[in-house]
Design a protein that fits this description.
By secondary structure, the chain is an all-alpha fold. Helix content is 65%, strand content 0%.
């Protein structure tokens, strides 16, 4: 990474992704790709499993957008258009992507709100509250390993950039945008019977 603050290196912040009349698919994917990069700052290959999961699901959403652009302008439109189809690759991929984003959002928000709690504890609690119920016995140990590989706060936060006050403000806005999108899509999945995020 260059000396640039993390939020200056991503192409789109969740804060700037339009959510009305639905969540803009292309801009959401851009923001999600930025989120994957935050795990590079964790500096541990154990997070490869998290990154690869997120990246694979972003690719499924992008593939649907490329093959059905007119029906996929928003995430909601994409899911509605795919509903009658037998295979719902993008809908399922997005559901898993949203779970991964929720996990990340909970972990970072907990860390921000609990300045004495190490990232490993914040992310362990985030995992319990988001992904763990959907993971089988083979996947849980991989994620557990990743949680234990979290860097210390004193190492991670300076990597986001300086000055810290400015970076914390950006992080807060980014997380608020992310949380809004996850909550909006959770509600959409639930009300439309598309699955559970």
């Amino acid at each position: 990474m260059s000396g640039q603050p993390f939020f200056k290196t991503i192409t789109k912040s969740f804060r700037d992704v339009p959510t009305e009349p639905g969540v803009d698919t292309a801009q959401f994917c851009d923001a999600a790709e930025g989120l994957v990069k935050i795990f590079d700052l964790f500096g541990n290959p154990a997070f490869g499993v998290v990154q690869s999961d997120l990246t694979g699901n972003i690719a499924k959403v992008r593939a649907r957008l490329a093959s059905h652009p007119a029906q996929s302008a928003t995430l909601e439109d994409m899911i509605r258009a795919e509903k009658p189809e037998k295979k719902k690759t993008a809908t399922e991929g997005l559901m898993w992507l949203l779970r991964g984003l929720k996990f990340t959002a909970i972990g970072l928000r907990r860390s921000q709100q609990n300045p004495t709690e190490e990232l490993s504890a914040s992310f362990q609690k985030a995992y319990e509250a988001s992904l763990r119920p959907y993971h089988g016995m083979l996947v849980r140990p991989l994620f557990s390993l990743a949680m234990n590989a979290c860097p210390y706060r004193a190492v991670f936060y300076p990597k986001l950039g300086e000055p810290q006050a400015e970076v914390q403000k950006e992080l807060d806005e980014w997380l608020t945008g992310l949380e809004k999108i996850v909550a909006q899509m959770e509600q959409f999945y639930k009300s439309g019977g598309h699955g559970t995020v």
